[in-house]
Design brief:
216 residues; alpha+beta; 3-stranded antiparallel sheet; rod-shaped
């Protein structure tokens, strides 16, 4: 029995060694072939801001009243000219940082001339062109918060640029004499002002600056 068993085991082992492998079907590439590749790209947030003119003039005797004191609606006058200038913009990002600043109207570099002043402080604001959209901090961005203040606007102008609208913010409607230097563009509260004070005669200039930083 042992020898038979041994022989049987030997035969099985030999069969295991000598048995041919199963045949495999060759790939003839005659069937449908496919491959998928994922392609990625980044489209950064973009904005465009243009104006049909960069030099505006308030025509006539409009800065002061008959007593030589600044009128209370200089911001309204400036806003009207900015609207006439045709300031257009569009943005593709969801969180675009908008900042609006102004310098006071000044002559001779600003400051004081004895008891007279050489500047007129005013404020102006710009309206979010798509204020129905969400994710915005304010419908308006104004000059009263200075260069460090800003508003967040969502994307706007999908097919054509939006014409921005400027106004005199109701909370800072009055304009007033100031001794600010010509480069000062801070918050309204940062200016030294003089109520019922006359400003000297001269040619006055002010710079309004609107910036938009694209953001996602």
């Amino acid at each position: 029995m042992k020898s038979i068993n041994l022989t049987a085991l030997a035969l099985v082992a030999a069969a295991g060694i000598s048995a041919p492998a199963f045949a495999q079907t060759a790939d003839t590439n005659t069937g449908l072939q496919s491959a998928s590749v994922v392609v990625s790209a980044t489209n950064p947030a973009k904005c465009d801001l243009t104006a049909t003119t960069t030099a505006l003039t308030l025509a006539g005797d409009v800065l002061t009243d008959a007593n030589g004191v600044p009128v209370n609606n200089v911001g309204t006058l400036v806003a009207a000219e900015l609207n006439n200038a045709g300031v257009n913009a569009w943005c593709t990002g969801a969180r675009n940082v908008v900042t609006l600043t102004r310098t006071a109207f000044t002559t001779g570099g600003g400051g004081s001339a004895g008891d007279f002043q050489k500047g007129i402080l005013y404020d102006v604001s710009v309206e979010n062109p798509d204020n129905t959209l969400g994710s915005r901090s304010s419908q308006y961005e104004g000059t009263s918060n200075g260069p460090t203040g800003s508003s967040i606007w969502t994307r706007f102008g999908a097919t054509t640029a939006k014409t921005l609208k400027f106004a005199n913010p109701a909370a800072n409607a009055a304009s007033i004499a100031t001794n600010a230097v010509s480069s000062a563009d801070g918050t309204t509260a940062s200016f030294t002002t003089y109520a019922a004070t006359r400003v000297i005669a001269g040619d006055y200039t002010s710079t309004v600056t609107l910036t938009i930083q694209p953001g996602v």
